[in-house]
Amino acid sequence: MIVHNLTWDKYQQLLQSLPQTRHLRLAYDRGTLEITIPLEPHEFTRELISLFIRVLVTEMGLKLKTMGSTTLSRPDLERGVEPDCAYYIQNQAKVIGRTVNLAQDPPPDLVVEVDFSHSDLNKNQLYAALGVPEFWRYNGQEWQIFQLQEDRYIECETSPTFPWVAKSYLYNFLAQAQGDEAAAELAWPALVQHQSQGQK
């Protein structure tokens, strides 16, 4: 659902009035509010991509602060959005152990959106305006990776955070999980260990 000509204050009032346990996702961009309700295929994929990333971070010995779908809000830009997944990796040390405030803290290093339905908001422009360095989009068939350069995203073939991870790894992981999530979860760390050792 799209609501036009909604002020920032009204958007904030709506956020405050909704329960914390809600299943709705809200995205606001300078007067336009988009409300979505994630369905089963979306949630299945979101959970698995989150696991995919967590295993990568763990096996590669990186640091992590998971933000989940926490609202990323910038009143000065009149923009706010609830991503499917958001992570601090490179900047984890700057925000660990406390609540993030984007007025003074850097944005998450990596944000993921699972898009099974068309969005009327330009999510690339929205996350670029928030300064998110790396943005992933997955539409059920294609994994797109974007890196922020100046004030816009450039599509990349590999992730700046995980440069040796080919897109086929995610596709194969998701395909295996369709048949057996537990088997996919067991197999992925071993593959990451093998591949990351080859990079050293």
From TrEMBL:
InterPro entries: Nuclease_put_TT1808, Restrct_endonuc-II-like, Uma2. GO terms for molecular function: endonuclease activity. SUPFAM superfamilies: Restriction endonuclease-like. Residues 8-159 form the Putative restriction endonuclease domain. The keyword Nuclease applies. The keyword Thylakoid does not apply. Keywords: Endonuclease, Hydrolase, Nuclease. It holds the Pfam family Uma2. PANTHER family: SLR2084 PROTEIN-RELATED (PTHR47152). This is Uma2 family endonuclease. It comes from Pseudocalidococcus azoricus BACA0444.
